[in-house]
Write a structure and sequence with these properties.
This protein is α+β, with helices and mostly antiparallel strands. It has 3 domains: 6-122, Rossmann fold (3-Layer(aba) Sandwich), CATH 3.40.50.20; 152-220, Dna Ligase, domain 1, CATH 3.30.1490.20; 223-354, D-amino Acid Aminotransferase, Chain A, domain 1 (2-Layer Sandwich). The chain has helices spanning 19-30, 75-82, 110-118, 127-134, 136-145, 158-175, 199-209, 254-258, 273-289, 325-333, 337-356, and strands at 6-13, 38-45, 51-53, 96-99, 153-157, 180-184, 194-196, 215-220, 224-233, 238-239, 243-247, 263-266, 294-303, 309-315. Strands 9, 10, 11, 12, 13 and 14 form a 6-stranded antiparallel beta sheet that branches. The protein has a 4-stranded mixed beta sheet with strand order 3-2-1-4, sandwiched between helices. InterPro entries: ATP-grasp (IPR011761), ATP_grasp_subdomain_1 (IPR013815), D-Ala_lig_Van_CS (IPR000291), D_ala_D_ala (IPR005905), Dala_Dala_lig_C (IPR011095), Dala_Dala_lig_N (IPR011127), PreATP-grasp_dom_sf (IPR016185).
């Protein structure tokens, strides 16, 4: 720890199809930190999964290319810093880890489990919520248990597809119809998602999605407005004003999310006050359904035919790029970017301290 500053380990990159998204998020977050309160240690994970660690930063990087830490030390030094609390040193290398890893090995509970083993506080949801929030099939089952309204879907894995693709296709045609959307169950940022308009496209879309994941979700098409709500907290979470996505694409795809000009955000969303209240309430219900901590963003459909609200998913590591909905919704609600980062760090430390108070051995 610095003399009067918290040392934050910023972790980004990762062995994931969302590697570049993570870099964009990390650069934005690093440049938003209050360096009068924090020192930053950058941890870069390459696309191959190796780690690099840089020195303590008193100012942010001026160029995103610096994030790759070409002159940084390697995996051993990086993990030594993460696990420094277990070495009995008087001074630990980091006070809290701040993962900005999107997708596989980042927001699926994997890195969170590493931090738990290292006994180091970290920002964001824990292992259980991260894993549940990453796997759309598991997430949907948890939503069903608390009666959250959802669109119709089909959930299957690679072996089921290889064993009985014809039967699955017939079931999806009967239950979902066309068009429908095919998604890898464990990726975000719309990576690997396709719209299928007939049986040939459906089969092709599933084969494409199986390149990214071994489990697949196929959902019915819903003619709907897309609305999002940010959630922040631990035991008593708060929800932001809702915001609406108006995309120029057929659906809110990767380019629309991360390339300026491809989508429009309406903040706050033009909905009735009662609808806004309902969206916030459902967002908190979804947060609790996955046993969330720290942050989530809940994504909803408002069906055009009857104004019914359907939950699509929760994202446990929403983007923090300049075009990201999560921080913009909080800004509209009255929480600035810097205040948001401060609160996320406070929540991570609060959760860690509470866990430290538990007893892990039989005292009898």
């Amino acid at each position: 720890m610095g003399q009067d500053k918290l040392t934050v380990g910023l972790v980004y990159g990762g062995k994931s199809g969302e590697h570049e998204v993570s870099l964009s998020t990390a650069f934005a977050v690093m440049n938003a930190f209050d360096f009068d309160k924090y020192e930053i240690i950058p941890f870069y994970i390459t696309k191959q999964g190796t780690w690099r660690i840089g020195g303590k930063l008193a100012t942010p990087f001026s160029d995103a290319s610096e994030l790759k830490l070409e002159d940084g030390e390697g995996t051993q030094a990086a993990l030594n810093a993460v696990f420094s609390r277990l070495y009995g040193n008087e001074e630990t290398a980091v006070d809290i880890m701040f993962p900005l890893l999107h997708g596989t090995f980042g927001e699926d509970g994997t890195i969170q489990g590493l931090f738990e083993m290292a006994d180091v506080p970290y920002v964001g949801t824990g292992v259980l919520a991260s894993a549940a929030g990453m796997d759309k099939g598991v997430m949907k089952k948890l939503f069903a248990q608390v009666d959250l309204p959802q669109c119709k879907y089909c959930y299957f894995n690679r072996s089921q597809w290889e064993r009985s693709s014809h039967e699955l296709l017939q079931r999806m045609e009967d239950e979902l119809g066309y068009p429908c959307f095919v998604k890898p169950a464990n990726l975000g940022s719309s990576v690997g998602i396709s719209k299928a308009r007939d049986a040939e496209e459906l089969r092709s879309s599933i084969e494409t999605a199986l390149r990214f994941d071994n489990k697949i979700i196929v959902e019915e098409f819903v003619d709907a407005r897309e609305v999002e709500v940010s959630v922040l907290g631990n035991d008593e979470p708060m929800a932001s004003v809702p915001g609406e996505i108006v995309s120029s694409s057929e659906y809110y795809d990767y380019a629309a999310k991360y390339t300026d000009g491809q989508s429009e955000m309406l903040i706050p969303a033009p909905v009735e006050p009662d609808t806004a209240d309902q969206l916030r309430e459902l967002a908190i219900t979804a947060f609790k359904a996955i046993e969330g901590n720290g942050i989530t963003r809940a994504d909803f459909f408002i069906r055009r035919s009857d104004s019914a609200i359907l939950i699509n998913e929760v994202n446990t590591m929403p983007g923090f790029t300049p075009y990201s909905m999560y921080p913009l919704l909080w800004r509209e609600t009255g929480v600035s970017y810097r205040e948001l980062l401060d609160r996320m760090i406070d929540l991570g430390i609060e959760r860690h301290n509470r866990k430290q108070a538990l007893v892990y051995e039989n005292e009898a």
